[in-house]
């Protein structure tokens, strides 16, 4: 299998000034092309270090993709380092990239300076892939076997994420033209309601029986649950897809309704599709989650087709005045209780006239009361089948608890809607 290394160049990454998102995008693109990413490195803005580390990566891997250090200022030294690494005897102008430099700067009303035009000058040892949305071109260096002991290629890309993303497809195509890549197929499913360790134990018999050319990865996330990625090596794309789907069918009995999607997905998108496809509407009442559920719902394009609105009833008075929660219910059962969650869900459904509603009331941080401890949330869901409530208990900080509360509420809502639509 073709192996690759991804290297980021720049002190700003090493000191935590910016977050490296390029590497994850590049890794996904390479994986989809059948290329194994063997290593990721971050390199300081030091010429000798850039040359040394990239030389080692080229010896150990077939492909190296590096990002950063291609700007017009003096601290951007990647191009000079690559010129030395590749044995360049000088720089040549790329006319097409220079024209792009003029177009970009003129469109922004900026003067074209000598240092801007210098970006279109590249080592005579590289091939250019045009940067159509930025001023620094992508440089492709192809090395013969005698240089590093095997055929190798290095691609130098800008550090600006949207520039890297725009050119990434062309870089992958260039790799495919120069290397024989294997087919890799990834199948992703989404599971909610299990911790990673508990899920691993649950499906252990299934995982142990996987063929040698299949691998399962666990990718947990507070808001989405556990993403399971099944990777299939070898064979052609269609046969890999059939085999992966057959394995997922065998996995389903272990998961039950904890399996909420057979693609890379999120709970708010799944809930939205259920509502939209069936012409149903949703209303939300939030206390402990403070608007987090409404925020998640409205991140989905087209959510106006099914989301009517929300009431952030943070204080007891709003619960009583707007949602109709009885004062005696709060006094006798506690503001964080099954009864209050149910009353909130029923109240907001009545106020907004929605088909379904979901409500939360809980203690997100160190506070609690005589009824419920900190980290407790009660979720209420109301709809055609009546009202149900469910209690969740978490032990995280305030922000993480709120995220877990919201995700648990969405999952409770999802299961309720499914039951209403299928029974």
| Integer-rounded radius of gyration | 27 Å
Number of domains: 3
Number of strands: 17
Shape: elongated
Termini gap? 49 Å
What is the CATH first-level class name of the largest domain?
A: Alpha Beta
Helix coverage percent of residues? 40-55%
CATH topology of the largest domain: Molybdenum Cofactor Biosythetic Enzyme, Chain A
- Under CATH, the homologous superfamily of the largest domain reads MoaB/Mog-like domain
Extract low-pLDDT stretches. Answer: none
Number of helices: 17
Describe this structure in words.
This protein is an alpha/beta fold and 423 residues long. The protein folds into three domains: 3-178, MoaB/Mog-like domain (Molybdenum Cofactor Biosythetic Enzyme, Chain A, 3-Layer(aba) Sandwich); 184-261, Alpha-Beta Plaits (2-Layer Sandwich); 267-422, Maf protein (Alpha-Beta Complex). It has helices at 11-14, 22-32, 47-60, 78-85, 95-107, 114-117, 145-148, 161-178, 196-202, 204-208, 237-255, 267-277, 292-298, 316-321, 327-333, 338-352, 398-422, and strands at 3-9, 36-43, 63-67, 91-93, 121-123, 127-129, 138-143, 152-157, 184-191, 214-221, 225-233, 259-261, 282-286, 307-312, 356-362, 376-383, 386-393. The strands form four sheets. Strands 2-1-3-8-7-6 form a six-stranded mixed beta sheet, with helices on both faces. Strands 14-13-15-16-17 form a five-stranded mixed beta sheet, sandwiched between helices. Strands 10-11-9-12 form a four-stranded antiparallel beta sheet, with helices on one face. A hairpin with a 2-residue loop joins strand 16 and strand 17. The mean pLDDT is 94.
